[in-house]
Amino acid sequence: MNARVRQPVHSADHAASYYAASVNRQLDFPPLGGEVQADVCIIGGGFSGLNTAIELAERGFSVALLEAHRIGWGASGRNGGQLIRGVGHDLDQFAGVLGSDGVRELKLLGLEAVELVRRRIEHFAIDCDLTWGYCDLANTAKDFASFLDDREELRELGYRHELRVVRPDEMHQVVGSDRYVGGLIDMGSGHLHPLNLALGEAAAAQALGVRLFEHSPVTRIDYGAEVRVHSTQGTVRAKHLVIACNAYLNDLNPELGGKVLPAGSYVIATEPLSLAQARTLIPQNMALCDQRVALDYYRLSADRRLLFGGACHYSGRDPADIAAYMRPKMLAVFPQLANTRIDFQWGGMIGIGANRLPQIGRLHAQPNVYYAQAYAGHGLNATHLAGRLLAEAIAGQESRGFDLFAQVPHLTFPGGKLLRSPLLALGMLWYRLKERFGSGGAL
């Protein structure tokens, strides 16, 4: 049953997602007009920009934030809502650059990042359906064995939250599917309503004195000791600039744009389920995610809809019908939903770097220009960490975390703007074929 599917709308308003339909506050900020002076100008009204603004305002800086569309319009307001520990992928690969102590510090920062979100929500009393509980799902015996290693490493790092391995015969305690061979429960990760979080943080930033401007696309940046940021109807003059556009950077800064690849990710939301249905699908109301390259991730909303996402597209082309594309993936996990209506479908762009580590630093040629981008689909916590690290660096505070991220070199994708997406699509196809036909007992 596919009746009443709501088509996504990519415009100056928010995408027509479940999140946009269930916001708990309405905020409207004016477009930039005339000339504004600030200590720091931030481009981008997602989690990176908002949290950098909050951190700077708490340190006494005057801040002007420009958003081309609406606050939370991009990935921050459209993502799967999964708040998961960690930053980056395979952090041990950076030991040659950072040393073993540096890698360990990155791992600890990945745990601290979730705590930053927790504290921000508590401090500002943001209503965003925060729910604790997450489970990694093993598709293969190899995945399951890696969970045992993950658990031991987290314990060695001093992780304070409950971790529990789920054996194959226990899987129905966490998910009503026969697709998986084990899991790892983490009670220090969870899920939330991301757009309500973004709007709550925007309200907090405004209360701290941050000037927020919507419908203010940046048309030009004049770099120098004083940065001048031009929008369609106004200009911001600032001592420092933060570029926090991620996958929606477009051509604003070619140096940063070449290091981040926009990739499409998609979500569908069912009609509200009965309490019995919901408990059958996800008995403990956790967020869940599998381990495949083209991963599935899903959870229940506060009104008991199944939100099912994944299917990252590197080709630059969105499916013509997201619901038709995603529904078979959902039914492969939950065939019992064959007669369940899909009420919402939407997509958006995530930013991916070649090494899958968030890119946080400053431009070498313009040392008063900072940036944060390329969260590779795990930005809900990493964006909050980036805001803290950027504010520390701008304030001149000692920031071991900022220095670590800034040390890591990031490859510029080959092929230029037109070829880098097709080239990466071919690369990811190779990984999927290897995953499907390689060893490890794939289901």
- The CATH superfamily of the domain at 18-79 and 195-261 and 355-414 is identified as FAD/NAD(P)-binding domain
Question: What is the tally of helical segments?
Answer: 11
Computed Rg = 21 Å
N to C succession of SSEs: HEHEEHEHEEHEEEEHEHEEEHEEEHHH
Number of strands: 17
List the helices and strands and how they pair.
Elements lengths: L17 H4 L12 E10 L3 H12 L4 E4 L15 E2 L11 H29 L7 E7 L3 H16 L6 E4 L16 E9 L2 H14 L3 E3 L4 E5 L4 E5 L2 E10 L10 H4 L3 E10 L4 H7 L5 E3 L6 E5 L5 E8 L8 H12 L8 E11 L6 E4 L6 E5 L5 H16 L5 H8 L8 H22 L6
Parallel strand pairs: 1-2, 1-10, 2-7, 4-12, 10-17
Antiparallel strand pairs: 3-6, 4-6, 5-6, 8-9, 9-10, 11-14, 11-15, 12-13, 13-14, 16-17
Helix pairs in contact: 2-5, 2-9, 3-9, 3-10
Organism: Zestomonas insulae
Keywords: Oxidoreductase
Pfam families: DAO
Could you explain the architecture of this structure?
- 33% of the residues lie in helices and 24% in strands.
- It is an alpha/beta fold.
- The chain has a domain at 18-79 and 195-261 and 355-414: FAD/NAD(P)-binding domain, CATH 3.50.50.60.
- Strands 3, 4, 5, 6, 11, 12, 13, 14 and 15 form a nine-stranded mixed beta sheet that branches.
- The chain is globular and about 60 Å long.
